[in-house]
Structures are given as C-alpha cells and as structure tokens.
Model the fold of this input.
Amino acid sequence: MEELFNKLQAWITEYGMDVISAIAILIVGRIVAGIARGLLKKLLVRSRVDETLVTFVTKVVYVALMVFIIIAAVGKLGVQTTSFVAVIGAAGLAVGLALQGSLSNFAAGVLLIIFKPFKVGDFIEAGGATGVVEEIGIFTTEMKSPDNKKIIVPNAKLMGDNITNYTAKEQRRIDIVAGVSYSADLDKVRKVLQGICSEDERILAEPAPTIGVLELADSSVNFVVRPWVKTADYWDVYFATQEKIKKRFDAEGIGIPFPQRDVHMYQEV
Done:
C-alpha cells in the first residue's frame, strides 16, 4: 500500500503540473473560443450578413478553435499530437473530396447571401428554372413556378448561369408588336396607338412610350409599342393594351392581316 502511495505521489509530482496545465488550457481555451465566437457574430451582424450564414460561420469557427485547443491540451500531457493532426488533415481531405458538390453549393450559397442578386419574393429566371424565390438556403434555393410547382435548385447551378431578376427594378418596359396591312394609313395607326398609351394611367409619362414601324414584313407593316409601367402593373397593362389595340383597330377600320404575337417568352410575375 505504501509502495502504491509512493508511486502515485511520484506520478503526481511528475505529471501533476502537466495535468493542471492541460485542464487550464481547456478551460481558458473554451472561454476564449466563446468570446471569439461572440465577437465574430457581432461583426457579421453589424455587416448585415444573413442570419443563416452568421450562425453557420460562428459554429464552424468555434468548433475549429475547440479542436486546436483540445490538441494543445493533449500535447501538454506529453502525447504526440503529430499523428492526430495528420489524421484530422486526411479526414478533412477525404470529406472534402466526398462532399465536393455540396461544398461548391455551399460556396455559391455564401456568395448569394453576400451579394444578393435576388431576394425572397423576387421573380427570377436562373439555373434553368423560372419562378418566385421562396427561400435562399446555404446549399439550395427554393422557388415557386408560375403554375405553383415547388422548384429546388442547387446554388452552384444558380451562380454558374445567368440570373434574370424581373422584379429587381421598379419599372419595366412592355414590348408589343401590332401588325397592320400595307394599305393602312400609318399616321393614323401611330395616332391610335399613342391614344391607347396616353389614356391608361398605369402607363408612365416618363420614360415616354416608344411607337414606331418595326419592320416591313411579307404581308404586314409591324408597329412596335413600348410603354413603361411599374413592375407590379406589367402583366395587367400588357393584356389590357393588347385587347385595346385589337378593339380600337376594329373600330377605326384599320385592317390587321393576321393575329400578331408578342416577341417575349411568357413569364408570370
């Protein structure tokens, strides 16, 4: 018993300070890591970084700091930590290769949150999808199509392609093509089209609508009508103006050789 006590006393004498130092490193290190996480969070919040990204980044930084603190504490006990660092590095490389696609989506998600090419509620066309943005996540972005379908697009695909944001600006231009016969009085046609634009209060006076002959087609003279409206009024004015042109042309006796189609692809805001 006395021999065991002597061995224990000798072990405490030899390693006691190392154990106390390791415990101190853990305690102080954890406090420092917590303070660093708090400071980083405040800095990111002041920079108006998205809350999702703030939470993720602070957690990653805290875990990384704790790993280094634990390695330092274990090393204080005399354990060789070189192998631990090598194992952690190899594991990180393996995970990185396995999650290469996810990491690219994460990086793209960070860029989306920082640069904000669109926000929730915007109507966009990107990554081969068109719809209203419902949620911007770290790895994917959720959209709702015009016919109420849920679309989930990887962020890397969004950032790797052109992004068209139809609701980013307060004003949009409507492009309508109206065809008339070659026998029509072009001055009269222009006057009718100008009257249609001026009588609609939703059509903006500035910038002024553009009305002119677009082309001399095989069997029609095609006029282009380009009024400016508020983005929220785009489709209401578009449909109403199309209908007014047809009815006014009929009332004025202006012949239309065949139905004209707008040059735009259909998008619903």
Observations:
- The mean pLDDT is 81.
- The chain has three domains: 2-98, 116-165, 171-252.
- The first strand starts at residue 123 and ends at 126.
